Amino acid sequence: MVKQYAILRVAGFLCALFSVMGYAENAALPNEQSSLTLYVENDLLSRTDKYYTSGVQLTYLTKDLEAMKLPPWLQEVGGLIPMFRHEGYTNNIGLSVGQQIFTPENTQATSLIRNDRPYAGWLFGGLSLHHKNTVNLHVLELRAGIVGPDAMGEAAQNGVHELRNLATAKGWKNQLHNEPGAVLTYEYRRRADATLPHSLFGADIIPAVRVSGGNVLTEGAVGINLRAGFNLPRDFHGNRMRTTGFAMSPEDGYERLRSPWSAYVFGGAESRYVAHNIFLDGNTWRTSHSVKREPFVGEVQGGFGLMYKRVRLTFTHVIRTREFQGQRGDHHSFGAVSLGFWF
Question: What is the pTM of this model?
């Protein structure tokens, strides 16, 4: 059974450990590969159907802008942002579209369940800027979309359930009202590679700090991931749909890896402080169903990745502590799958 504050302490300790480690930074050479990644997150993979129940996102990440025939002023657009002014870094643009669905535990009740989380859908598009070298990654992303019936959460969930001959959710008439939403997120990741020279086996450690603000979500988070395996891809581990694709280290396109195959396992932890979450707090400007959120939320995750040439598949199992008061059990779990292509 997951204990919330144990996760918070583990993530904090690992981030402190990373801060005293050494890193070797190399000059950045442009990567000439774009990527397309499909993310699917669903608690049916953990044999439940409640709370955060589904997420789908499709992301396109450009090749390094420095490898494209763009006007110099466009290549240097990141220099307008203070944390994106680093000599020798390369840049990418990310575009994404996605949907997330949230429901209470009892999806067969037609009446409002006041002590359980609201029904809600979130349909969004995202635009991001990635600024990186071989060790550091800065990401600034704006997501904008709609929360409520126009997000088509009911149609998506019940349509899939009908196709799979599963019981449909009966309480969608109680979902949050329509509300335009936006979230601005800044994330920093730092990668330390422990691969031995002339060896295809190795490990890396990737701590991260993330800050988000907006009427949909306002939070701060710290976390860390550790990977180990054969022919590790030199990227920043974008296995979940809250990131915009797999940002490759600029000198390491996939055609430069020493084997067409990669196989690895990974694990990680994250702790975050949640100041606002529309899916728990309810609509911003209209009265709606809401529950009292837990301000501190922790996660642990583990999984594996497989890659052949320019195709990669990852599977992640996530365990998350309680997000609101009255949530049954100490945690909720779900699975996440990503399938990426580079071209």
Answer: 0.87
